[in-house]
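Researcher: Quick sanity check before group meeting.
Model: Go ahead. Protein one:
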Amino acid sequence: MSARQRGLALAEVLVAMALSLLVALAAASLLHVSNGDFLHNGANTRLDDSGRFAMAIITQALRQAGYPGEPGAAAAGVAPLALEGRDNAGVATDADGLGVPLPAINRSDALAIRYAPTAIAGAEGGGAMLNCAGFPSAAGEWAWSIFYLAQASDGVAELRCKYKGAHAWGSDAVIRGVDAFHVVYGIDTDTPRDNIPNLYLTASDIDARDAALPAAEKAMRPSWRRVVSVRVALLLHGERASRPGSLLGSYRLLPGADPAARIDEVSLPAAMQRRARRMFAATVALRNL
């Protein structure tokens, strides 16, 4: 074989190798895109299921608030609130009710709901109503459903449900992978009341309104007793690398009602950025006023 023939053969081999590399790179690129789409679609499906489930639990608990009607007088002469909340606060599992505020995850809120189950023959524990964990509560005493965010043992933030058991307080996870949980409250400011919210306030705003009242009125917490609806919002995230692209998002959970209800991905740790995210919100009218 002449030198020219050997050169041509070598060129053909190099061209074939280059073409093979191009085909391999194209196949790898298609596989990468396909895998990214698979992760993104799977994450969105899981987010949709988790969000719908969480909102169903929260809205059901809110519709029980204050049942069977305006709460009766407590031993101290002040009727307990049907619901109350805290801004930018976590909740201790073993504390009574909301307890002392703990550091919050991404400035998330806590929401506490009270109701009084009625006795039903044959019902476990005598009560026909279930708390946020799905357990019946004993008739004739106040039951609780408290929602807040906390970290699981692996560091993943989850929406938790705190409830009062027969002997102690308990807390169970509702869903995992929650960035933020925020609540605002619809206040009926009309006199006489028409049970239609005139404005939505945060828990801190409601506490401030009550704090400005004379001492005789302050103890009754009248602003909380004028809450006629509740608006809740959740932001959930998917697995790592579950959202293609390089842009960082900004999410407003309750636009116009709570400026603090906002998550900017640029402020999150790198591992939490560029994930599939989904917001869920609902407004619930309170039934038992």
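Researcher: Fine. The other one?
Model: Protein two, sequence then structure:
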Amino acid sequence: MARLRSEIEVTCPCCQTTLVIDSNLGRVVSHKEPDRGNKPELGDAHRILAEEAARREAAFEQSVNSEKTRGDALSRRFEEALRQAREEPITKPTRDFDLD
């Protein structure tokens, strides 16, 4: 496509996209994104989805196992606190009024 005199071609410093800007219109006329080498191939889509599904399943299983053992840990902590409460002598709490 032939460019007009009022069109300016600019390269974005962040993403390296080439923008063609028409100064008379004050807007972007066209843009071209650079080729990215790290795009996944369509043939690899099934493998990528399977890996993500396996990762999600592993995270879910870890969450389930931690919830199962959480109840045991809480009951052990409760039993320990109850045992300590029984062993400690009962004392009258000190008040600020008693310190004078």
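Researcher: One line on it for the slide.
Model: The mean pLDDT is 86.
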